[in-house]
Amino acid sequence: MDDDTEVAVSQLLLIQCDGCNANSLHQEVDFGDRDKYFYQVWPEERRPLSFAVPEELRAEHEEAVACLRSGAHTAAVVMVRRTLEGICRLNNVDKRTLFEGLRELQQRGQIDDRLMEWAEELRTLGNQGAHFTGTKVTREDASDAVDLAEAMLDYMYVLTVKFAEFKKRRASKASSAGEAKA
To answer: C-alpha distances in angstroms, 74 versus 38, 63, 137?
Structure first.
């Protein structure tokens, strides 16, 4: 091994909570001059994405999570950007740029102003990761990007459908109650 070779040092830690006595397994990875990364291996920290999220998008998101866990922060934000591209494509948006695609989703009402703001920040961070800018992507930014992308997927594919079903059920109950009064 050369003296110039960078090696990540990893250790597993079995931890027991003093409060509830629950056990958990954690991994600490030290990248030397880069960040240390500490995460819970077991039980799984992140909940899995709903099967209501299309498989292709779940795969992109899981790869972003895997990149984040391995300390590949730049790769994680690029995968988040790919997730946004997938959202556009799976919603039949075929624009020249991701920005234009996200704007079309907003104009269609598929994402609101807040989600558009999130998507735009994620797109910008993804561009920073995808292009050689000399700017480092921090673990904190990569982690937030993965979390925000997950929230967008939940909003678009789980909560939007759940809310529509909720409103339909409530409307059905209201009309049944109205018929009963008549």
So the answer is: 17, 12, 5
Average model confidence (pLDDT) for the chain? Answer: 87
For residue 45, the model assigns a pLDDT of: 65
Say whether pLDDT at 3 is over 60. no
| Cβ burial, residue 152 (10 Å; 0-12/13-18/19+) | buried
Taking the CA atoms of the chain, what radius of gyration do you get in angstroms? 21
Is 27 within 8 Å of 41 (Cβ atoms)? yes
Q: Sorting pLDDT into bands at 50, 70 and 90, what band is 29?
A: confident
Which sign does the torsion angle of CA 116, 118, 121, 122 carry? negative
DSSP string, 96-116: SSHHHHHHHHHHTTSS-HHHH
User: Which residues touch 33 (CB under 8 Å, ≥6 apart)?
Assistant: 6
Task: Using the predicted structure, report yes or no on whether residue 119 has a pLDDT greater than 80.
Answer: yes
Rounded-to-5 percentages of helix, strand, coil across the chain: 60, 15, 30
Establish whether the linkage from the previous residue to 43 is cis, with ω within 30° of 0. yes
User: 98-107 vs 113-130: helix axis angle to the nearest 10?
Assistant: 170
